[in-house]
Structures are given as C-alpha cells and as structure tokens.
Amino acid sequence: MRKALISLRVYNQLTKYSKDNPGQEVCGLLSGVFNDNDSLTITKFYPIDNIADQPLALFIMDPTQQMQVMNKILLTDKESIVGCFHSHPHNLGVPSSIDRSNINMEYSWLIYGGQDDCIRAWWPDVKSKSFYSIDLKQKNE
Q1: I need a surface site. Which of 30, 51, 81, 106 has the fewest CB within 10 A?
Q2: What are the residues facing 28 on neighbouring strands?
Q3: Would you list the domain boundaries of the chain?
Q4: What does pLDDT average to in each consecutive run of 10 residues of the chain (141 residues)?
C-alpha cells in the first residue's frame, strides 16, 4: 500500500476526537475501499472505547463494540475495514514499540500525534513486526 485518501470531514473528526480526549489513547476502526492502484480510500471512522488499564500508554479496543462495528462495516455498510486509528496524545503519530508488538492484521494504521497535531498513516508488515509510512492525502467530499 502506498497511499491513503481521506475526506477532510473524517480527518477533522479524527483530530477533534483526539483533542477532546487528551488523557487517553482514543481508538477506533476505519472503513472504506481498497482501490486498484495500490491505495485505499477512508470513508468513515467508528470510535471504540479504549479499555486498557493504562489508556494513556496503550489502547485495547472494547471487544464487544469492535465486533458490533465490524458487523456494521461489513454487513450493513457493505464496505471494507481499511484500518484502525488511535492517538498518541503527548507524542508524535509514529508507531510505538507497543504498536509494533501488537501488529496482527495488514491494514492501515492512522495515528494522531498530539505533540505536533498531525495524523500520519502507516502500513504494517506482520512478519517483521514493523511499519512503513504511506502517504495520507486529504480530499474534499
């Protein structure tokens, strides 16, 4: 994957959600479509509660909410799960060592960094437990 397209509406929703909750890593799933040209388009964000014991240091999505959202995306909306989102309230939007150790699916990871008020997009390599940066382009709806 080389590029992720995101509507300005969803980008602003992710930023606002992160800024409104500076005391924790917020998280959720992203829906949209995988395009033929090695890119994906993000159309919606679904917030999911972070149930981690240390929510400022890591995120664990509430499994009941996660299943409900996955069913909505796949069965009701007829879209794909194209990624997950979470925030690093006091750091840059780059994958942490905890993020790297938790890679288990190949889909985009968008991370908001409170340190520079920026969202960055990443694609995981499950085998090597590493990420590489992908272009995140905003588009008007």
Answers
A1: 106
A2: 47, 85
A3: 3-139
A4: 92 98 97 92 97 95 98 95 96 94 89 97 92 93 68
Q: Cα 62 to the chain's mean position, in Å?
A: 15
3-state secondary structure the chain: CCEEEEEHHHHHHHHHHHHCCCCCCCEEEEEEEECCCCEEEEEEEEEECECCCCCCCCCCECHHHHHHHHHHHHHHCCCEEEEEEEEECCCCCCCCHHHHHCCCCCCEEEEEECCCCEEEEEEEECCCCEEEEEEEEEECC
> Does domain 3-139 sit in CATH 3.40.50.970?
no
pTM of the model: 0.94
Q: Is the dihedral of CA 115, 134, 15, 21 positive or negative?
A: negative
34-63 pLDDT, tens digit each? 998 889 999 999 999 999 999 999 999 999
Q: Which amino acid is at 16?
A: K
